[in-house]
Structure formats: structure tokens, C-alpha cells
Amino acid sequence: MTVPLGAYIAVSVGLFFIGCAGVLVRRNAVVILMCVELMLNAANLALVAFSRRFGAVDQRGSVFVIFVFVIAAAEVAVGLAIVLSAYRNRPVIDVDEIHQMKG
Amino acid sequence: MPVGPLGLDPLFWAPLRLIIAVALALFLVLNGALLQIYLERKIQAIIQDRLGPYHVGPFGLLQTFADAIKLIAKEDVRARATDPWFFLAAPALVFCPMLASWVVLPFAQDIVGVDLNIGLLYLTTLGSMTVLGIVIAGWASNNKYALVGGLRSAGQLISYEIPQILALVSVALVVGSLSMIDITRSQAGPLVNVFVLPFSFLIYFIAALAETNRTPFDLPEAESELVAGWLTEYSGMRWGTMLALSEYGNVTVVSSIVTTLWFGGWQGPGVDAIPLLGVLWFTLKVYGVIVVMMWIRATLPRLRIDQLMTFCWLGLIPLALLNIMVVAVLALAFPDTKIPIALASWLLVIAFIAGVPFVQRRRLALLRARASASAVRAAS
Amino acid sequence: MSFDFVEPVVFAVLAFGVIGAGAAVVLLDRITASALLMALTFLCMAGMFVLLGAETIAAFQVLIYVGAITVLILFGVQFTKQGGDRSYALFFQKQYPLAAALVAAVAIPVALFAFSFTAPAPPPGGGDIRPLATSVFTDYAFAFEVASVLLLAAMVGAIVLTTRDERAEAARRRK
After folding, report:
1. Number of C-alpha atoms within 13 angstroms, CB side, residue B147?
2. Which of C38, C69, C87 to mutate against chain A (most A CBs within 10 Å)?
3. Domain A5-89: which topology?
4. Regarding predicted confidence, which is higher, C162 or C169?
5. Which of the residues C30, C31, C62, C132 would you substitute to probe the B interface, choosing the one with the greatest number of B C-beta atoms within 10 Å?
6. What CATH number does the domain located at C6-139 have?
């Protein structure tokens, strides 16, 4: 009795919505970045699951996943750089407080 | 499904086989660490013209047993404000990836845990997981020096992963496979890969010395720097696990990679007749590499953190990239023979070794110019 | 006695790990615990990739996410100390039942719909590294090059954003 494809998609959906809720709910900028990573992971799982089911010959979904890895890594690096330089300016990490464009 | 010996039911044999494999790997790691600690002290003693341990047991062979018993019997000291979960979890986070890498090391023709077709990728992946344990260990100690030491060590480890992986990629380019058994089999007879890709060997060896925190890159664990860095608050067997077992286990894994990729792995005279002889050749070659690492430790002084990082980013990484480019172009241009690659690689090694005095002279001139400029600025 | 029960059991454990650790990332107050549980989510995700037969992707997942991104986030956590009372935005502190109902109203039907997919085909033998490598370096070679340019731009950008201009700051302090 193998695991149906739908189970992998259900896990992907669940993780995506958890990440989405995290981005909306949490105030700490670094935690928001972490939840964005969770969403990207959920998308990767869905891509790989569908790729193994429908595109088993040339693995195109997995190729897409490699590019998602690259983009996620680049995004975390630049996102953290932005957060750290904003923090250096004014030592607040709460995104609700970073609402002034001046200074 | 695997049927066990004496016709044991697969339902029992499959988990039992797993438990036996993990126990065997643990046994090898523990005994390897024991032997290597003794070897390290004896070799350093011989090079430094003194005796080393000779009191406990014949030739001091039981010295490490005595040390291990002392470590286990030590009081478990924990500072009050350390994070309860992470302080205890950090030694496990550092130890487990190292233990998991033993599964792909090829000891003989059929004696390998699992012949993964991504064996080399698996080893680099596990090597990158150790960094997490070190950062957590540094943070959980609630100690400024441990935190900075942990971050420094993490920076060193992630920097030196890059030339390590690039050197491995160049070997995979020539061999055409990432499986450890395939790489060993591709080296026929005495023409092992160190004659074909010596520059990759040099780059990987230096990067591996930095990855396993061996001198001259052992700034994170040196006792005179930052009060022993990220393991300041760890004592007793926690320290034993993180430092002795993990480090010497890592050294063994890295030496096994070097042996498999560049020195022919288990091959040697008489292996075709008696396959089990491969284990002997493999162990001898691995310990040969380990003895060279210990020899380097007893000889060279330590690098400072900025010298270390400069050497990686401005020295090893450009050389590793140049190496991959040369090997890839030549492997595509002359796909049947390995001679052009060997020539190019040896030329790069000679250029590297001969070019060191020039680079040193230029950097010295640069430092002198900068020092005199700041002296002039301070005087005015 | 067949071993067919192993795969669903392993999948159940990994799915529980992924969802549980993901929920803990969102709900916990201590950021370091959140960061480590995120690493656990990534590890369980890599396990799922192995179950699907994509072991190269699993190795890349651990190498990139657990080995690099988690360490980066831990560095970021340690350089930015948080203060303040609650970690959740004000709306959700007061009206969290409404927020939970909204999320569930969308997530549950989608998850139920997901179960209507049929069983996956068994993965082809020989592992997935050869088809993957062939695809990346022949069909998608241009995308591969563009991705490397993207990484270069990200690297340069991150360095430029966080470089301190020592002389300008010293001049500003002297004024």
C-alpha cells in the first residue's frame, strides 16, 4: 500500500498555509523570513511530488526545484542584509514599528 | 527483502541489521578516536624530541583508556543560565552527522554500508550539518567568548566548504560518477588519481584541514584563543564527545575520502585473491593520511582568523575555480585520455608552490606601505 | 510477512514532523527555538524527498537549507535582539479565533481536495541524478547561467548593504 500522491500534496498545502499564517501573524522580521522559507519548501514538495508522478522521464519538476533552492538562498541573504542594515539604523526588529521612511 | 543468516525472518533481520551496522560504526569511531589520540600525542612527542605517554600500559597504549574513564567520571558541570535543551542537544548535533557519514565509506570491494549513487554529495551534505551544532553550542553556553568563538568557527567552516566541494567536483568530472565504489574502481592499478589530479588533492587536503579544525586552522578550539572558543562551558564527556570523538571521527572520514578519491581506496597487492585484504590496505592508507595531518599539526603555527579567511576567499577559492575550469575544458576536449588533465594539474601544482614567494613578497610590501602610511597620518 | 507497512508509517512520521515543526516555528516565542525547529522541518522535508525517490534533491535540500540558510538565520537572530511583550501582531492577539477560522476555511477544503489524487507511479531505478543533470545542463542550461548571475547579484548586494564605511562613520562621529 503505497502513499497516495494526494497525501504529499496535503502536507504541502498544510505547510504552505502555516507559513502564510506565520508571515501574517508574527512581528519579528527574521521570523517572517523563516516563514517565507517554509512556504518555499511547501512549493518544492508539491513540485517534486508531481514531477515523480507525471514527468518521471526527464524530471523537469526537480529541475525547477533546483532553481527554487537558488532563489530562496539568494532571497534569504539579501533579506537578512536589509533587515540588519535597518536594525543598524534604528535598533528595532518589530515590523510594526518600522514604519517611518525618514532617518 | 533480506533473509537473515540461518534463515532468520526478514522482519527481525532488517532492523537487527540496522542496529548491528550502527553499533559497528560507533565501535569504529570510538576505537579510531582512542587510537588517534594516542598516535597524536606520540607523534607530536617524537617530533618535539620528547617521550609522550609511556607510563600507562606498554608504550603508554592504555593512556587514552585512562583519559576516557576520567572524562566519564567527571562531574557534570553546567552553568546556571545555559539554555537547558540546546546545551544538551549541541554535542548530539555535532556528533550525529559525523557518525552518519561512515555509511558510505568503502572499506573493501563488497564491504561498504550502502553504495549510494550520490555518495560524495551525501558526504559533503553531512559535513555542512556540523556547523549548526557548533553555532548552537556557542549560543547555548550563555558566554560571550563561546558565542563569538562559535560564530568564528561557523564562518571558518562554511568558508572552507566551498573549495572542498569544488575540489571534489573536479574529481567527479574526471571519473564520471559520484559513487565511492565507482571512483575507487576507476583507478586501475598503481596509476591512482593523485598522479592525475594532484592539484585537486592539494586544495582538498588544505580545505579538509580547515573543515576538521586541525592546525594550522584550529583557531576555534585552541586553548589560548578566546578561552577555548565555542566549547568553553563544556567539560567531561560532553567535551569528549564534541572534541575528541567528533573531531577524530571527522578526520577519519576526511582521510577516507582522500584515500578513496586520490589513493585508490582499498586497492593494493593481493586484493583480487583475498577481498578482505582490502580492509587492511584501506586502513593503512587512511592512517597514512592521518599521520601526515598530525605531522602538519606538530610543525606549523596557527593562522589568525583574518589570515584564515583571506587565504580561503582570496587564495583557495580562485584556485579551486581555476582548477575546475581547466579540468572541465580538458575533459571535454580530450575525452578518452587522462594525460592532458594530468599535465595541466601538475603544472598548476608547480606554479602554486613556486608562486608562493612572489605572493608573500607582494603582500609584505603592501603591509609595509600601509603601516608607513598610517604612521605618517598619526604623526601629522 | 511483507514490508508494505513501512512506507506509510515513515511518511506519517515525516508528515507529522513537517507540520508539527512548521506550526512550532510560527507559534513559539523564542526565536532560536523557532530557527532550530525550522531546521527540523527542512530535515523531515528531505526525508520526504527521499521517499519520493528524489535523493539528489534531498541532499541539496539538507546542504542548502539546513547547512547554509539555517546558519544564516541564526546569525541574523543573534545580531538582532528582540524586546517587547508579545510576538504576534495586535490583530491576532485579540482576534485569533477569527484568524484561525479564516485559515482553516481555506486550508481544509484544499487539503481534502488534495487527497483525491491517485497513487504515484514507482520511481524509475538508478536514482534521479543522471536525468536531473542531463536536464539542467542541456535543456535548461540558460536558466542555470541566469541563476548563477542571480546568485552573484545577491552576493554583491548583500555585501554592499552591510558594509560599513569606516571613514565616513568616523568623520560623522568626529563632527
Report:
1. 11
2. C69
3. Helix Hairpins (1.10.287)
4. C162
5. C62
6. 1.20.120.1200
